[in-house]
């Protein structure tokens, strides 16, 4: 008896291993995947400008990094006792204008460095709804609680999403022609836009991505479909009934790793996980002989991994 539908998955042609360099950009679900990659000690850079919900925000970051833009005080503003930039998430906002500008320019350099050497770029799109700042006629990445009247809310058409993604891909490929793009649509529902509006938005994103997939410009991982079809129960959601809970994140990561992480890397991944569990272990008697043996064994595991992969830090 089958009690669950299964979303068919295709294995990636160029899988991730421990020599891979990854850049993760986009909506909050990319943070979930990024946390998994960081936990298992892959070489990755995650959202240098914080969470970016839509393709236009990602396009702006990519363009500014590649064109080596320098942020100046004209690009930031003061509100609610903090300095902000419309191109970045509020996580980068600061009480100091100088520190904010320093962070913005430093993260631009970090983005360019990772774009240049990346083997894989994972892009997660959350929404096709965007806010245009009326005063400058520019689409922002984050409104930073600026009053709604300062913006016009728009739904990007399928063609506009396609164009934005194509622009980002083309700029990246101009300096890194061999990079592998993996796109996914965030399973997080943007219900503040409205139930129907959220579905319309997701449909635009999925349609646009598949148009580029048909051109062999990227690969698609169906995280949205897995959440909607395989995990279609509120027990897989957090308390807000919008975000996937940890069980759902673990489940989707397991699906992702099966098709996008190499078999050799899975073996190392298991060894890293054993070390991570060991580091969290709390002894009843830290001075006992048994615990000292445990610590010695754990140290040997760490040394073994670091001898093979010097970039791993525990």
Report on this structure.
This protein is of the alpha/beta class and 314 residues long. 46% of the residues lie in helices and 14% in strands. The chain contains nine helices and ten strands. The strands form three sheets. It has a five-stranded parallel sheet, sandwiched between helices. It has a three-stranded antiparallel sheet with strand order 7-6-8, with no helix packed on it. A two-stranded antiparallel sheet has the order 3-4. α2 crosses α3, α2 packs parallel to α4 (158-175) and α8 (263-280) runs antiparallel to α9 (289-308). The longest helix has 21 residues, at 97-117. The mean pLDDT is 96.
| Rg measurement, Å | 21 Å
Q: Give the strand content.
A: 5-15%
Whole-number mean pLDDT: 96
Give the spatial strand order of the biggest sheet: 2-1-5-9-10
Total strands: the figure is: 10
Order of helices and strands: EHEHEEHEEEEHEHEHHHH
**Shape annotation:** globular
What class, by secondary structure content?
A: alpha/beta
The residue fraction in helices comes out at 40-55%
Low-confidence stretches: none
Notable traits:
14% strand, three-stranded antiparallel beta sheet, 46% helix, alpha/beta, 314 residues, globular
């Amino acid at each position: 008896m089958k009690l669950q539908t299964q979303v068919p998955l295709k294995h990636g042609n160029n899988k991730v291993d421990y020599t891979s360099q990854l850049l993760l950009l986009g909506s909050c679900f990319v943070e979930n995947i990024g946390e998994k990659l960081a936990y298992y000690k892959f070489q990755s850079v995650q959202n240098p400008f914080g969470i970016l919900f839509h393709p236009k925000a990602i396009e702006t970051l990519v363009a500014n990094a590649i064109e080596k833009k320098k942020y100046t005080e004209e690009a930031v503003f003061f509100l609610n006792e903090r300095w902000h930039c419309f191109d970045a998430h509020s996580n980068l906002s600061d009480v100091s204008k100088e520190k904010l500008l320093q962070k913005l320019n430093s993260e631009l350099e970090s983005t360019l460095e990772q774009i240049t050497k990346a083997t894989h770029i994972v892009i997660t799109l959350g929404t096709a709804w965007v806010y245009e700042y009326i005063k400058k006629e520019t689409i922002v990445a984050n409104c930073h609680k600026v009053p709604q009247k300062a913006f016009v809310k728009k739904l990007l058409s399928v063609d506009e999403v396609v164009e934005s993604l194509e622009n980002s891909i083309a700029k990246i490929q101009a300096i890194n022609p061999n990079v592998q793009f993996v796109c996914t649509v965030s399973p997080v529902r943007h219900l503040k836009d409205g139930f129907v509006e959220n579905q319309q938005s997701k449909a635009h994103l999925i349609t646009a991505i598949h148009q580029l997939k048909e051109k062999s410009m990227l690969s698609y991982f169906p995280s949205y479909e897995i959440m909607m079809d395989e995990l279609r129960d509120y027990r897989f959601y957090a308390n807000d009934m919008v975000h996937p809970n940890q069980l759902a994140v673990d489940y989707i990561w397991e699906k992702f790793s099966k098709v996008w992480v190499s078999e050799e890397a899975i073996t190392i991944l298991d060894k890293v996980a054993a070390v991570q569990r060991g580091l969290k272990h709390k002894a009843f008697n830290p001075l006992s002989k048994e615990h000292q043996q445990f610590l010695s064994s754990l140290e040997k595991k760490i040394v073994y991994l670091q001898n093979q992969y010097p970039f791993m830090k525990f």
